[in-house]
C-alpha cells in the first residue's frame, strides 16, 4: 500500500487543480462581449472604426479591461440601418494583435443612409467544461448625418428591438450630446418581455465596480424592466446585465446563462450653442 501512494500527486497539486477548475466554472458566465465605435457621429460616406472586445465581468472585474479575445467562428455581426435593413459584417473583422488571445477584432463600417445605425453582435455556444449554454448580445450605435456641427438630437430608432433572447434597449438617444447628470435610460428584455428586479451595471471607463452590488454604479430594473443612471462626467459607459436559467437545459448543456451589453458615449454639450 505504501508503494502505491508514491503514484499519487502531491496534495497541493490536487488542490490547485480542483481550485482552478472551480474558478473556471464560476467565471464561465462572466465573460462578456462589447462593442465600441471610434466616434458616434459621422458624415455620410465616412467609415466608423468598430472594435469588438471580450472582458471578464465577474464580481471582481466589472470594468473595461480585456480578458482574451472572441472566437469569430462563434459570433454573428450585424449592422442595422435606419430602415431596418441588416448587413452581416463578420467577414470584415480584422485581427489587431499577433497573439491570437490578445487585442480585439476591428471592422470599418459605413452607414447606408443618414440616420441612426445599430451595431449588434451575438454569440450562442455551449461551454463544454461547464457544460453551460452561453447566450450573449452586445450593442452600440452611431449616427450618419450631413453635418457634424449641429447633429439632430431627436433621431428615431434607438429603441428598436434586435429580437435576441436577452438585450438592453436604450430609452434615450445613445448618441445625442448630453450634459452630465442627464439620465441614461435602458430597458432589459428577456425573450421579448421586460425583466424586472435584475441588476444593471453602468460602468464608466477607468472605474472598477465594487464587489457584489455597487450602489453608486448599479441599479435594479423596475416592474417595466427599466433602469436609469445619471453620469457624472463625459465618458464611455459600458452597460451590462446578466441572467441565469439553471433549469434551461438540453442534450449537451445543463443550464443557460445570458448576458447583454450596451456601450454609450456620453459627450458634453457645446458651451457656445448648447448643442
Summarize the structure.
It contains 2 helices and 17 strands.
Give the integer mean of the pLDDT values. Answer: 84
Q: Determine the fraction of residues in helical runs and give it as a percent range.
A: under 10%
Count all strands and give the number: 17
- Determine the strand fraction and express it as a percent band: 35-45%
Topology order in helix (H) and strand (E) letters: HHEEEEEEEEEEEEEEEEE
The largest sheet is: 9 strands, mixed
List the helices and strands and how they pair.
Blueprint: H1 2-5, H2 11-27, E1 31-37, E2 41-43, E3 47-56, E4 75-80, E5 86-88, E6 94-95, E7 105-110, E8 115-127, E9 132-145, E10 166-170, E11 184-190, E12 193-194, E13 199-204, E14 218-220, E15 226-229, E16 235-245, E17 255-266
Parallel strand pairs: 2-9, 9-17
Antiparallel strand pairs: 1-3, 3-7, 4-5, 4-8, 6-7, 8-9, 10-11, 11-12, 11-15, 13-14, 13-16, 16-17
Report on the architecture of this protein.
The structure is a single chain. The N and C termini lie far apart (82 Å). The protein has helices at residues 2-5, 11-27; strands at residues 31-37, 41-43, 47-56, 75-80, 86-88, 94-95, 105-110, 115-127, 132-145, 166-170, 184-190, 193-194, 199-204, 218-220, 226-229, 235-245, 255-266. It has two helices and 17 strands. 31% of the residues are buried. Strands 2, 4, 5, 8, 9, 13, 14, 16 and 17 form a nine-stranded mixed sheet that branches. Helices cover 8% and strands 41% of the residues. It is globular, with a radius of gyration of 21 Å. It has 275 residues and is mainly β. Mean pLDDT is 84; it is low at 1-8 and 11-29.
Amino acid at each position: 500500500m505504501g508503494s502505491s501512494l508514491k503514484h499519487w500527486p502531491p496534495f497541493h497539486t490536487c488542490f490547485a487543480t480542483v481550485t482552478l477548475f472551480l474558478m473556471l466554472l464560476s467565471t464561465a458566465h462572466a465573460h462578456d462581449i462589447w462593442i465600441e465605435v471610434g466616434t458616434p457621429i459621422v458624415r455620410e460616406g465616412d467609415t466608423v472604426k468598430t472594435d469588438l472586445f471580450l472582458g471578464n465581468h465577474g464580481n471582481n472585474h466589472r470594468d473595461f479591461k480585456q480578458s482574451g479575445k472572441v472566437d469569430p467562428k462563434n459570433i454573428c455581426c450585424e449592422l442595422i440601418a435606419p430602415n431596418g435593413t441588416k448587413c452581416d459584417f463578420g467577414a470584415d473583422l480584422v485581427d489587431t494583435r499577433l497573439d491570437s488571445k490578445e487585442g480585439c477584432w476591428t471592422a470599418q463600417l459605413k452607414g447606408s443612409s443618414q440616420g441612426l445605425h445599430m451595431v449588434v453582435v451575438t454569440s450562442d455556444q455551449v461551454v463544454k467544461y461547464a457544460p453551460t449554454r452561453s447566450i450573449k448580445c452586445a450593442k452600440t450605435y452611431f449616427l450618419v448625418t450631413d453635418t457634424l456641427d449641429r447633429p439632430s438630437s431627436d433621431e428615431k430608432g434607438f429603441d428598436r428591438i434586435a429580437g435576441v433572447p436577452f438585450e438592453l434597449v436604450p430609452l434615450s438617444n445613445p448618441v445625442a450630446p448630453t450634459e452630465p447628470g442627464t439620465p441614461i435610460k435602458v430597458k432589459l428584455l428577456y425573450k421579448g418581455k421586460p425583466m424586472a428586479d435584475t441588476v444593471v451595471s453602468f460602468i464608466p471607463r477607468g472605474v472598477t465596480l465594487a464587489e457584489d452590488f455597487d450602489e453608486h454604479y448599479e441599479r435594479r430594473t423596475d416592474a417595466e424592466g427599466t433602469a436609469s443612471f445619471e453620469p457624472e462626467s463625459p465618458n464611455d459607459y459600458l452597460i451590462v446585465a446578466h441572467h441565469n436559467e439553471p433549469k434551461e437545459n438540453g442534450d449537451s448543456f445543463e443550464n443557460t446563462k445570458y448576458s447583454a451589453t450596451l456601450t454609450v458615449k456620453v459627450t458634453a454639450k457645446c458651451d457656445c450653442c448648447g448643442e
